[in-house]
Amino acid sequence: MAIEDDVLVVGGGVAGMTAALAAAEAGASVRLVTKSQSTLRHASGLVDVLGYADGDLLADPFAALDDLPADHPYAKVGVEAVRDGLARFDAVTGERYRGGHTDRNALLPTHGGAVKPTARYPASAAAGLASDERDALLVGFETLSDFDAPLAADHLRAADVPFDVRGATVSFPGTPRADAKVTRYAHALDGNDDEERERLAARVARVHDGEPRVGFPAVLGEAHPGDVRATLADALDADVFEVPMGPPSLPGIRLEADYERALREAGVNVVRRPVVDYEADGEHLTAAVVERNGQHVPHHAESFVLATGGLVGEGIDSDRGGVREPVFDCHVPHPADRYDWFVDERFGEQPYPRFGVVVDDDLRPRDAEGRIEFENLRAAGSVVGGADFAAECSGMGVSLATGDAAGSAAGADTQ
Predict the structure, then answer these.
(1) How far is residue 81's CA from residue 362's CA, in Å, rounded to a whole number?
(2) Is it the case that residue 299 has pLDDT exceeding 70?
(3) Is 255 in contact with 400 (CB distance < 8 Å)?
(4) Which domains are seen in the chain, by residue range?
(5) What pLDDT, in 10s, does the model give residues 28-41?
(6) For a FRET experiment, which of 128, 135, 357, 388 has its CA 20 to 30 Å from that of 152?
């Protein structure tokens, strides 16, 4: 039996899921194929649009978008696509996120004690804004080595935040193993009764010196984070917030659940299998070939979106022979000499983070001669070249903007 859809999206990250939702909204039947779970569980859960330009912190990311190079993904899709991508994110997350009331970046403390600019942030982190002048206590757990609260507080003071902050470490009720996953802490606090939460609050109360804000590592419940925070806040008589953590990330896992719910409600079929080949008729893609139980199964569609990630997400592959895009074999420009892929300066501007496929203004990948690779293929997210997501703090925003634009166009093409 032939597998046919209007739109096939390859890649299950934010860009792919956004593209799938946009295509479905345009009226297309959509299938999303991804070889693994979303990378969201490895992300902080913060949504960056543009945090830095030329090394300078940006208060308003939208004011700097027009000044980006012509090959930057934002320059390809335009400012309105960035706003459309954020609007779709807001529709997916609802009241679970903050920041949609303004174009300005918010500043949030991270688990390392840095201050990070971001356009959207979980409601669970809202009381921790670095622009808030109220004093704060950071609380870490003895068995959770990923968050050293006293050290994070030291770093925040060194960053000259406008409030007094200190850190303290307490034992978590039940004393989880030192190698316990963050979900173990979350599930312990998710219970139907408040016993674990109240025991934790009692231990924090011993080190709490009346600070109006108390920050915890982002492990305060997976299913009921709002209830957990409310219980702790009542017991401590303070606003409670979560500090974004590294992977695995509870805010990222919660966000992944929001997107999976949205995909189901939109009628998007999700297939967790690798794409190993493709079929094409000249410059027209006809199918992505999916490996399933040892068989190679063509998945046909009228329009395709490539959203497999960049070098980190394995959407861009590299070896001694060069750099390539492994799914549809799209062209990835790069210096022939591997030693020109990087510079020796520790904080120098590295070439390799910008590696990716080259796209036109309709996000269609182009070959080495500038010709369209496939007329019915678009690319979205970090597989698109031209941005240094880490240096710019722009990764999630680029995924939302290009995902929304690529999915909308792909869906419209099938109507």
Answers:
(1) 12
(2) yes
(3) no
(4) 3-96+253-413 (3.50.50.60), 111-243 (3.40.50.1860)
(5) 999 999 987 777 77
(6) 388
